Task: structure prediction
Amino acid sequence: MDLLAELLASDDAQLPARLPGGATVERLAPAVWQVTPANAWPGRPLIVSAGIHGDETAPVEVLCGIVSALCAGALAPRIPLLLVFGNLQALRAARRYIDDDLNRLFGGATVSASCEAPRAAALIAAIDRFCARNPAAVHLDLHSAIRDSRYACFAIAPRESEGPLGHEPRTLLAACGIEAVLLTGVKAPTFSARSARVHGCEAYTFELGRVRRLGGGVSGEFAAVDRALRALIAADPLPPSETAPHVFRVSRELIKQSDAFQMMLPPDAANFTGFAAGALIAEDGSQQWHAEPGELIVFPNPAVKPGLRAGLLIIADATSDT
Ligand SMILES: [Zn+2]
Result:
Protein backbone atom coordinates (compact mmCIF):
# COMPACT_ATOMS: atom_id res chain seq x y z
CA MET A 1 0.00 0.00 0.00
CA ASP A 2 1.37 3.42 -0.90
CA LEU A 3 -0.49 5.56 1.64
CA LEU A 4 1.19 8.77 0.53
CA ALA A 5 0.00 8.26 -3.05
CA GLU A 6 -3.51 7.52 -1.79
CA LEU A 7 -3.57 10.63 0.40
CA LEU A 8 -2.45 12.71 -2.57
CA ALA A 9 -5.10 11.17 -4.80
CA SER A 10 -8.24 11.62 -2.71
CA ASP A 11 -9.89 11.94 0.69
CA ASP A 12 -10.96 8.30 0.53
CA ALA A 13 -7.72 6.56 1.62
CA GLN A 14 -8.64 3.54 3.73
CA LEU A 15 -6.73 1.41 6.20
CA PRO A 16 -7.72 -2.16 7.01
CA ALA A 17 -10.31 -2.33 9.81
CA ARG A 18 -8.17 -4.86 11.65
CA LEU A 19 -4.36 -4.92 11.82
CA PRO A 20 -2.20 -8.04 12.07
CA GLY A 21 -2.23 -8.85 15.79
CA GLY A 22 -5.84 -7.79 16.22
CA ALA A 23 -5.77 -4.02 16.76
CA THR A 24 -8.83 -2.30 15.33
CA VAL A 25 -8.79 0.79 13.12
CA GLU A 26 -11.58 3.34 13.00
CA ARG A 27 -11.68 6.25 10.58
CA LEU A 28 -12.80 9.36 12.48
CA ALA A 29 -12.44 11.73 9.48
CA PRO A 30 -10.68 11.64 6.11
CA ALA A 31 -7.03 10.68 6.80
CA VAL A 32 -7.66 10.51 10.56
CA TRP A 33 -7.52 7.03 12.08
CA GLN A 34 -7.90 5.77 15.62
CA VAL A 35 -6.02 2.55 16.36
CA THR A 36 -7.15 0.55 19.38
CA PRO A 37 -4.82 -2.26 20.43
CA ALA A 38 -6.25 -5.71 21.07
CA ASN A 39 -4.59 -5.68 24.49
CA ALA A 40 -3.61 -2.27 25.79
CA TRP A 41 -0.42 -2.10 27.83
CA PRO A 42 0.31 0.56 30.39
CA GLY A 43 1.30 3.62 28.42
CA ARG A 44 -0.26 6.95 27.60
CA PRO A 45 -2.57 7.33 24.60
CA LEU A 46 -0.80 9.08 21.73
CA ILE A 47 -1.92 11.52 19.05
CA VAL A 48 0.50 12.04 16.17
CA SER A 49 -0.29 14.66 13.55
CA ALA A 50 1.62 15.76 10.45
CA GLY A 51 0.93 17.91 7.41
CA ILE A 52 -0.98 20.65 9.23
CA HIS A 53 1.09 22.78 6.85
CA GLY A 54 0.90 21.26 3.37
CA ASP A 55 4.49 22.05 2.37
CA GLU A 56 6.01 20.36 5.42
CA THR A 57 6.23 16.97 3.91
CA ALA A 58 9.06 15.11 5.64
CA PRO A 59 6.95 14.58 8.79
CA VAL A 60 4.11 13.32 6.56
CA GLU A 61 6.50 10.75 5.13
CA VAL A 62 7.59 9.72 8.64
CA LEU A 63 3.96 9.18 9.63
CA CYS A 64 3.17 7.30 6.40
CA GLY A 65 6.09 4.98 7.18
CA ILE A 66 4.67 4.30 10.63
CA VAL A 67 1.19 3.61 9.25
CA SER A 68 2.68 1.21 6.71
CA ALA A 69 4.58 -0.61 9.47
CA LEU A 70 1.37 -0.91 11.50
CA CYS A 71 -0.55 -2.27 8.51
CA ALA A 72 2.22 -4.75 7.66
CA GLY A 73 2.38 -6.04 11.23
CA ALA A 74 5.98 -4.84 11.56
CA LEU A 75 4.94 -2.50 14.38
CA ALA A 76 2.49 -3.77 17.01
CA PRO A 77 0.47 -1.00 18.67
CA ARG A 78 0.06 -1.41 22.42
CA ILE A 79 -1.45 1.98 23.29
CA PRO A 80 -4.51 3.79 21.91
CA LEU A 81 -3.34 5.87 18.98
CA LEU A 82 -4.75 8.66 16.82
CA LEU A 83 -3.03 9.25 13.47
CA VAL A 84 -3.81 12.58 11.81
CA PHE A 85 -2.84 13.88 8.39
CA GLY A 86 -3.68 17.58 8.49
CA ASN A 87 -4.24 19.84 5.50
CA LEU A 88 -4.86 17.38 2.65
CA GLN A 89 -5.76 20.01 0.04
CA ALA A 90 -2.62 22.02 0.78
CA LEU A 91 -0.54 18.84 0.76
CA ARG A 92 -1.80 18.08 -2.76
CA ALA A 93 -1.06 21.65 -3.84
CA ALA A 94 2.40 21.53 -2.14
CA ARG A 95 1.46 24.75 -0.34
CA ARG A 96 1.56 25.78 3.31
CA TYR A 97 -2.20 26.41 3.10
CA ILE A 98 -4.87 27.28 0.55
CA ASP A 99 -6.84 30.17 2.15
CA ASP A 100 -6.03 30.16 5.85
CA ASP A 101 -3.17 28.84 7.94
CA LEU A 102 -4.79 25.71 9.43
CA ASN A 103 -2.54 26.00 12.49
CA ARG A 104 -4.25 29.30 13.41
CA LEU A 105 -7.79 27.87 13.38
CA PHE A 106 -7.78 26.08 16.73
CA GLY A 107 -8.38 29.15 18.89
CA GLY A 108 -12.10 28.58 19.33
CA ALA A 109 -13.23 31.69 17.47
CA THR A 110 -15.72 31.31 14.64
CA VAL A 111 -13.79 30.70 11.49
CA SER A 112 -14.29 32.43 8.17
CA ALA A 113 -15.56 30.54 5.15
CA SER A 114 -12.09 29.42 4.10
CA CYS A 115 -11.19 26.14 2.51
CA GLU A 116 -9.41 25.16 5.77
CA ALA A 117 -12.36 25.87 8.12
CA PRO A 118 -14.22 22.56 7.63
CA ARG A 119 -10.95 20.65 7.99
CA ALA A 120 -10.22 22.38 11.31
CA ALA A 121 -13.74 21.46 12.49
CA ALA A 122 -13.25 17.81 11.43
CA LEU A 123 -9.89 17.58 13.22
CA ILE A 124 -11.36 19.14 16.37
CA ALA A 125 -14.24 16.64 16.36
CA ALA A 126 -11.80 13.72 15.95
CA ILE A 127 -9.50 14.94 18.74
CA ASP A 128 -12.47 15.50 21.07
CA ARG A 129 -13.80 12.03 20.40
CA PHE A 130 -10.42 10.38 20.92
CA CYS A 131 -9.64 12.34 24.11
CA ALA A 132 -13.07 11.62 25.59
CA ARG A 133 -12.24 7.91 25.39
CA ASN A 134 -8.54 8.26 26.12
CA PRO A 135 -7.76 10.88 28.76
CA ALA A 136 -4.24 12.18 29.49
CA ALA A 137 -3.00 11.66 25.94
CA VAL A 138 0.29 12.96 24.56
CA HIS A 139 -0.10 14.97 21.32
CA LEU A 140 2.91 15.38 19.04
CA ASP A 141 2.22 17.72 16.11
CA LEU A 142 5.06 17.31 13.60
CA HIS A 143 6.18 20.24 11.47
CA SER A 144 9.35 21.18 9.62
CA ALA A 145 10.84 24.61 10.23
CA ILE A 146 10.68 27.21 7.47
CA ARG A 147 13.86 29.01 8.45
CA ASP A 148 17.31 28.12 9.68
CA SER A 149 17.64 27.45 13.35
CA ARG A 150 20.53 27.20 15.78
CA TYR A 151 18.78 24.01 16.89
CA ALA A 152 17.78 21.84 13.91
CA CYS A 153 14.98 20.21 15.91
CA PHE A 154 13.06 22.10 18.55
CA ALA A 155 9.67 21.98 20.24
CA ILE A 156 7.04 24.46 21.36
CA ALA A 157 5.40 23.24 24.57
CA PRO A 158 2.06 24.94 25.31
CA ARG A 159 1.36 24.38 28.99
CA GLU A 160 -1.26 25.38 31.52
CA SER A 161 1.30 25.35 34.33
CA GLU A 162 4.20 27.77 34.72
CA GLY A 163 6.38 25.28 36.58
CA PRO A 164 9.61 23.72 35.37
CA LEU A 165 9.58 21.08 32.68
CA GLY A 166 9.81 17.75 34.46
CA HIS A 167 12.20 14.87 33.95
CA GLU A 168 9.70 12.71 32.02
CA PRO A 169 8.83 15.27 29.33
CA ARG A 170 12.50 16.09 28.90
CA THR A 171 13.32 12.40 28.46
CA LEU A 172 10.60 12.13 25.80
CA LEU A 173 11.85 15.24 23.97
CA ALA A 174 15.46 14.09 24.10
CA ALA A 175 14.48 10.70 22.67
CA CYS A 176 12.72 12.52 19.81
CA GLY A 177 15.97 14.35 18.99
CA ILE A 178 14.64 17.68 20.25
CA GLU A 179 17.54 19.99 21.10
CA ALA A 180 15.58 22.94 22.49
CA VAL A 181 12.08 23.43 23.88
CA LEU A 182 10.20 26.69 24.28
CA LEU A 183 7.61 26.75 27.08
CA THR A 184 4.57 28.89 26.21
CA GLY A 185 1.01 29.42 27.43
CA VAL A 186 -1.98 27.57 25.99
CA LYS A 187 -3.80 30.55 24.42
CA ALA A 188 -2.27 30.19 20.95
CA PRO A 189 -4.71 29.10 18.20
CA THR A 190 -2.45 26.17 17.26
CA PHE A 191 -3.40 22.50 17.08
CA SER A 192 -1.13 21.46 19.95
CA ALA A 193 -2.15 24.40 22.17
CA ARG A 194 -5.80 23.41 21.79
CA SER A 195 -5.07 19.84 22.91
CA ALA A 196 -3.26 21.19 25.97
CA ARG A 197 -5.95 23.80 26.70
CA VAL A 198 -9.10 21.76 26.11
CA HIS A 199 -7.97 18.25 27.03
CA GLY A 200 -4.98 18.77 29.30
CA CYS A 201 -2.78 16.81 26.89
CA GLU A 202 0.96 16.93 27.17
CA ALA A 203 1.23 18.53 23.74
CA TYR A 204 4.07 19.76 21.57
CA THR A 205 4.60 21.34 18.20
CA PHE A 206 7.80 19.83 16.82
CA GLU A 207 9.80 21.90 14.32
CA LEU A 208 12.06 19.40 12.63
CA GLY A 209 14.77 20.29 10.13
CA ARG A 210 13.86 22.19 7.00
CA VAL A 211 10.96 22.18 4.54
CA ARG A 212 11.77 20.02 1.55
CA ARG A 213 10.19 18.58 -1.56
CA LEU A 214 7.64 15.77 -1.20
CA GLY A 215 9.30 12.47 -2.06
CA GLY A 216 12.68 13.98 -1.19
CA GLY A 217 12.95 11.30 1.44
CA VAL A 218 13.32 11.39 5.17
CA SER A 219 16.73 12.58 6.28
CA GLY A 220 18.68 11.88 9.45
CA GLU A 221 17.02 14.79 11.24
CA PHE A 222 13.89 12.67 11.43
CA ALA A 223 15.46 9.36 12.41
CA ALA A 224 15.25 10.08 16.15
CA VAL A 225 11.59 11.09 16.11
CA ASP A 226 10.75 8.09 13.91
CA ARG A 227 12.43 5.71 16.38
CA ALA A 228 10.87 7.39 19.42
CA LEU A 229 7.36 7.30 17.90
CA ARG A 230 7.69 3.58 17.16
CA ALA A 231 8.85 2.96 20.76
CA LEU A 232 5.92 4.94 22.17
CA ILE A 233 3.44 3.09 19.94
CA ALA A 234 4.85 -0.31 20.91
CA ALA A 235 5.02 0.72 24.62
CA ASP A 236 8.74 -0.09 24.48
CA PRO A 237 11.34 1.84 26.49
CA LEU A 238 12.35 5.07 24.76
CA PRO A 239 15.70 4.95 22.96
CA PRO A 240 18.33 6.50 25.25
CA SER A 241 19.67 9.93 24.40
CA GLU A 242 22.87 11.49 25.63
CA THR A 243 21.72 15.08 25.43
CA ALA A 244 18.96 16.96 27.22
CA PRO A 245 17.04 19.72 25.44
CA HIS A 246 17.76 23.33 26.35
CA VAL A 247 14.64 24.80 27.95
CA PHE A 248 13.52 28.37 27.19
CA ARG A 249 10.56 30.51 28.11
CA VAL A 250 9.10 33.64 26.54
CA SER A 251 10.41 36.90 27.96
CA ARG A 252 8.65 39.38 25.62
CA GLU A 253 6.59 39.52 22.46
CA LEU A 254 7.57 42.00 19.77
CA ILE A 255 4.28 43.48 18.61
CA LYS A 256 4.51 45.57 15.47
CA GLN A 257 2.64 48.83 16.03
CA SER A 258 3.01 50.58 12.67
CA ASP A 259 4.55 50.34 9.22
CA ALA A 260 7.58 52.16 10.63
CA PHE A 261 8.53 48.93 12.44
CA GLN A 262 12.09 47.84 11.70
CA MET A 263 13.99 44.84 12.93
CA MET A 264 17.77 45.02 13.21
CA LEU A 265 18.18 41.48 11.89
CA PRO A 266 18.53 40.04 8.40
CA PRO A 267 15.14 38.75 7.17
CA ASP A 268 16.49 35.19 7.14
CA ALA A 269 17.95 35.32 10.66
CA ALA A 270 18.04 31.89 12.26
CA ASN A 271 15.70 30.96 15.08
CA PHE A 272 17.45 31.22 18.47
CA THR A 273 19.72 34.05 17.28
CA GLY A 274 21.15 35.77 20.34
CA PHE A 275 22.09 39.41 21.02
CA ALA A 276 24.70 41.27 22.98
CA ALA A 277 23.06 42.68 26.12
CA GLY A 278 21.64 46.11 25.34
CA ALA A 279 21.76 45.64 21.55
CA LEU A 280 18.94 47.29 19.60
CA ILE A 281 16.62 44.51 18.36
CA ALA A 282 13.83 46.52 16.77
CA GLU A 283 12.27 49.96 16.67
CA ASP A 284 8.87 51.33 15.78
CA GLY A 285 8.76 55.13 15.64
CA SER A 286 9.91 56.29 19.06
CA GLN A 287 9.66 52.81 20.65
CA GLN A 288 12.83 50.73 20.85
CA TRP A 289 13.47 47.19 22.03
CA HIS A 290 16.91 46.53 23.51
CA ALA A 291 18.11 43.05 24.38
CA GLU A 292 18.06 42.01 28.01
CA PRO A 293 20.98 39.78 29.05
CA GLY A 294 20.60 36.29 27.56
CA GLU A 295 17.67 37.09 25.25
CA LEU A 296 17.31 35.23 21.95
CA ILE A 297 14.73 35.59 19.17
CA VAL A 298 12.49 33.02 17.52
CA PHE A 299 10.06 33.43 14.61
CA PRO A 300 11.28 36.90 13.57
CA ASN A 301 8.94 38.27 10.92
CA PRO A 302 8.93 42.06 10.45
CA ALA A 303 6.58 41.71 7.46
CA VAL A 304 3.48 40.93 9.57
CA LYS A 305 0.58 43.41 9.61
CA PRO A 306 0.62 46.11 12.32
CA GLY A 307 -0.95 44.76 15.52
CA LEU A 308 0.53 41.31 15.03
CA ARG A 309 3.55 39.59 16.56
CA ALA A 310 6.81 40.23 14.71
CA GLY A 311 8.89 37.92 16.87
CA LEU A 312 9.25 36.27 20.25
CA LEU A 313 12.07 37.07 22.65
CA ILE A 314 13.03 34.18 24.88
CA ILE A 315 15.42 33.39 27.71
CA ALA A 316 16.80 30.19 29.20
CA ASP A 317 14.43 28.75 31.81
CA ALA A 318 16.50 28.60 34.97
CA THR A 319 13.89 26.49 36.84
CA SER A 320 14.16 23.61 34.36
CA ASP A 321 17.93 23.19 34.70
CA THR A 322 19.09 19.71 35.44
ZN1 LIG B 1 4.38 24.05 10.21
User: Anything to note?
Assistant: The chain has a mean pLDDT of 92. The helical segments are 3-9, 58-72, 88-93, 117-133, 167-175, 191-199, 223-233. Residues 117-133 form the longest helix (17 residues). Residues 86 and 127 are 12 Å apart (CA to CA).
